[in-house]
Amino acid sequence: MDSFHHLESKGEYEEFFDQGTSYLRAARNGAAKRPDVFLPEIIYNLTAMAIEKFLMALIMYHGDLAENHTMHDLQRSAKKYVEIRPELAEKLDYIDSFQDICSLSDYRRRIPTPKDVEEILAIGRQIKCFVALKIFNQEGPCRIHSAACFHHVQPCRTQGTVDFFQAQAHKNAW
User: Fold this and answer.
1) 52-106, pLDDT tens digit by residue?
2) CA–CA dist 29, 51 (Å, integer)
3) The domain that contains 62 carries what CATH number?
4) Domain range spanning residue 125?
5) Does residue 164 sit within a domain?
6) Torsion sign across C-alpha atoms 25, 40, 58, 7
7) Residue 80 falls within a domain, yes or no?
8) pTM for the model
9) How would you classify the pairing of strands 154-158 and 108-109?
C-alpha cells in the first residue's frame, strides 16, 4: 500500500474497535441506567468517541491513519477504502453538527437535547455494525465476528450487498 501512515500491525484495529465498543456500551448504559449523571452532552461525547474509534479501526484495518479526527475527516479517510452511503454520511454530519472545535476563528458547540440522545446512540450502533461488517465479515454478511456484532443482527440483502439501514437489531443487544 502506498500510504504515508502505513501500519505494520493489523491487530491494532481490533483494539480500536474494542475501545469503540466500550465507549458505546458506556453511553448506552449511562443513558438507560443513570440519566441524572450521564447527561446528553456526556452521551454525545462518549458516542462520538466510539464512532471515532470504529472509523479509525476501519481505516487502520486498511493500513492507514486519518489525517484528522472530525467526523468529516474520518469519512473522507474511510471513503478511500469503502463506500459510505449518503444516508450514513448525513448521520455522521449530524454528529459533527454539535461541535466545530478545530477552527480558531469559528469555534462553536451545541449541547444535545434529551431528544437527540436516542438518535445519537442509534448512529453509534449503525456505525459499529457498518464497520464490523467491513472488517470482520469479509466472507459474507451473515457471518459476524462475535466481538463485533451480536448473532441476532440480520442485515437485509439488496442485490448482493448489505443494506445497513434495513438491518433489524434488538435495541438492548447493543
Assistant:
1) 999 999 999 999 888 876 888 899 999 999 999 999 999 999 999 898 655 566 6
2) 16
3) 1.20.120.330
4) 12-139
5) no
6) negative
7) yes
8) 0.74
9) unpaired
